[in-house]
Amino acid sequence: MKFKLLLIALGATIVISCNNNSAAPAETKPDTVAQKPAEQKKELLNQPLVSHIYTADPSAHVFNGRIYIYPSHDTATGTPQDDLGSHFDMRDYHVLSMDNVGGTVTDHGVALDIKNVPWAGRQMWAPDAAYANGKYYLYFPVKNKKDVFQIGVATSDKPEGPFIAEKQPMKNSYSIDPCVFKDDDGKFYMYLGGIWGGQLQRWNNNKYDSSGANRKPDEPAILPRISQMNPDMKSLSGELKEIQLLDKNGKAFTEKDNDKRFFEGPWVFKYKGQYYFTYSTGDTHNLCYATGSSPYGPFTYQGKILNPVVGWTSHHSIIEFNGKWYLFYHDSQLSGEQTHLRNIKVTEMKFNEDGTIQTITPQK
């Protein structure tokens, strides 16, 4: 395959149009982004928000009337690919922002680097952010020096950072993909978990077993985790608890229900009094959702939010902004790779009158 290389290294402040992939100046050294537009056979619903670096796992929030996006930063480090995701060798986080969907996107540069996290070993995966106590908090999974994923926290006075990491990971935390949800009463909850490379299969009753294996087809599916957060926003209120995810008959999923069971990427929001637990099915490439009456669940499966994208992985966030709802997601349009070197996108998400979500097809 032939790759058209797009290399951007101009200026100090980046402003990138959401509506095209043209080059724009960047304040930090950009990635070498390989694009294959001539080989794209399917019509894609949306274009990448930025094209000067590879971005994935977008966690979007509205702070001070502006949309801030906290993605992971894919890089081509040459690490061999495997089912545990060793090639997702991310080493820093950038923060992106925009005044409105469809407008210009600003890259605020490196917000946190792995070299400034004292306890970190490797692989800074999908982060999330929150605002409380007059500060902004960045939550991130990274493997410790024993190669076990834990969740770190870093703080800043500004939503774009830079962020200063705590010297130790959050006590009782493990696995990947933290999502911090603020309920109407002001309480915060952290949801997390991811199987396979995310190591959730190695944790049973909050005890780590390095030999923990993926579930067999007829075994109960591994469940995501939750904990309420302490007011300091730097610690969990206790040990993580499992979240029940059920079908419409009240039955728990087994591993063979891999088009509906949880794999990774939890994201929680509230709509018309209902809690929506959304997630990725991983190896079947769906974004799905389930609803419940409590932040702890149980949650009942309702359907798909997003059909499979270009590329293997699917990871997302959902926000309300100016009276509309938006889904942030990623695919691998720019690189054409199967699993990594991805780019983030956004599209409007619509509800039906009964609260169900209209399924989005990202490629035709």
Write the layout of secondary structure elements.
Layout: E1 4-6, E2 14-17, E3 33-35, E4 56-63, E5 66-72, E6 92-98, E7 104-113, E8 120-124, E9 128-132, E10 135-144, E11 149-156, E12 164-165, E13 179-182, E14 188-192, E15 203-204, E16 207-208, E17 225-228, E18 241-242, E19 245-246, E20 264-271, E21 274-280, E22 287-292, E23 299-306, E24 317-321, E25 324-331, E26 343-349
Tags for this model:
364 residues; mainly beta; Tachylectin-2, Chain A; 5-stranded antiparallel β-sheet; 39% strand
Question: What does this 3D model show about the protein?
Answer:
This protein has 364 residues and is an all-beta fold. The protein has one domain (4-349): Glycosyl hydrolase domain, family 43 (Tachylectin-2, Chain A, 5 Propeller), CATH 2.115.10. 0% of the residues lie in helices and 39% in strands. It has no helices and 26 strands. The protein has strands spanning 4-6, 14-17, 33-35, 56-63, 66-72, 92-98, 104-113, 120-124, 128-132, 135-144, 149-156, 164-165, 179-182, 188-192, 203-204, 207-208, 225-228, 241-242, 245-246, 264-271, 274-280, 287-292, 299-306, 317-321, 324-331, 343-349. It has a five-stranded antiparallel sheet with strand order 2-7-6-5-4, with no helix packed on it. Strands 8, 9, 10, 11 and 12 form a five-stranded antiparallel sheet that branches. Strands 19-23-22-21-20 form a five-stranded mixed sheet, with no helix packed on it. It is globular. The two termini are 23 Å apart.
